[in-house]
Design brief:
about 350 residues; alpha/beta; globular; 12 helices
Length: about 350
């Protein structure tokens, strides 16, 4: 697969001539309807002009993404977000004040000029003000909202480095801005505010992330309702709502801490049937006992640290040729909700 141009850019030195030139080149491509991959604090995004329907459709073609799965528009600030929606309820003010810029996406009723290609034909748009300096600088340089789902093929692992983007998409992307590894590691939390915008329903948590539900509810002053169910090809209100997603090439075997012995037995049986196959594991503590996996990644025992390393570790297992990935589930407590969501969808 042909590789796209990759421009290194230091998030802490965006006023250098090299960074200025890289941002100018990337912004010109966005304005011309092309695709640019760039770092956000969550994962690398595949960016295009959010108000150019043809450019947005190029995202879907590059990813192999079905049209029923909408794309998040990244904006510079609250004023730019309000320019894309018909209503801005108090709940939006509360969440934006508490968590923007940051890994939170809000779904609100869209204005007519927001293309249906961006929103899966639904009358609501998903919006986020990213915190990553490169993402923010690119949005400002492009002069408008940037549509940017994760820069990978549909349902596959999201990228947390520029190298992941190049391996996944190759020349399907016109340029990659390499700002180093991402800091959050999994996709943004998504909250649906279409009910409060209409005055006839509660805010709903559509996709968990690293922002704990308790923090969101404290900012809102009310509880979050559950996400609506969506099956088949029905349009989704937000990305990340399909059953299988965020998946490595390796088959994911998830198990709880007390199931290590059962996981070891399953691995031994698999090896008897696949004597040349390689197996990897993501664990919360070192493997103890016989028959260890070929590759073992011990992940941090805190939710933020685990999330930061999760996709990178799964990418490493794929790059090592592992056919199966044993993943030890973290504790089933609220701070781990976003991680559990990703593991469940990866193993689906």
């Amino acid at each position: 697969m042909l590789a796209p141009p990759v421009l290194p850019i230091d998030p802490d030195a965006l006023d250098t001539p090299a960074a200025t030139a890289a941002l100018a080149r990337a912004a010109a491509l966005i304005r011309a309807g092309r695709l640019v991959a760039f770092p956000t604090e969550t994962v690398y995004g595949l960016g295009a002009d959010a108000l150019n329907a043809d450019a947005v459709r190029r995202i879907f073609a590059a990813k192999g993404r079905p049209s029923f799965n909408p794309v998040i528009a990244h904006v510079a600030d609250v004023d730019d977000a309000r320019a894309l929606v018909t209503a801005w309820p108090d709940a939006a003010d509360r969440l934006a004040a508490a968590f923007w810029p940051g890994p939170l996406t809000l779904v609100l009723p869209k204005r007519a000029h927001v293309p249906d290609a961006l929103t899966a034909g639904l009358p609501a748009v998903a919006l986020r003000v990213p915190a990553h300096p490169v993402a923010r600088a690119l949005v400002r340089a492009a002069g408008g909202p940037i549509a940017a789902p994760s820069a990978n093929r549909y349902t596959e692992l999201s990228p947390t480095t520029a190298a992941h983007v190049v391996r996944a998409l190759g020349a399907r992307v016109d340029l990659v801005l390499d700002g180093g590894p991402t800091a959050v590691g999994i996709e943004s939390t998504v909250v649906d505010l279409t009910g409060p915008a209409r005055g006839d329903g509660p805010p709903r948590l559509l996709r968990p992330g690293t922002l704990a539900r308790a923090r969101l509810e404290a900012a809102l002053g009310t509880e979050l309702a559950a996400a609506p169910r969506a099956d088949g090809d029905a349009p989704r209100l937000a990305p990340g709502m399909v059953a299988r997603h965020y998946a490595p090439r390796a088959a994911v075997w998830a198990f709880d801490e007390g199931e290590r012995r059962a996981a070891a037995i399953r691995l031994a049986r698999w090896r008897a049937e696949h004597p040349t196959g390689r197996a990897g594991a993501l664990l919360l503590a070192p493997w103890i006992g016989e028959g260890p996996p070929d590759v073992v990644e011990v992940l941090p025992a805190d939710p933020d640290g685990y999330a930061r390393r999760l996709y990178a570790a799964l990418h490493a297992l794929d790059e090592d040729g592992c056919a199966v990935a044993l993943v030890e589930r973290p504790p089933a407590t609220p701070p781990w909700h976003g991680v559990h969501d990703r593991l469940e969808r990866a193993a689906a």
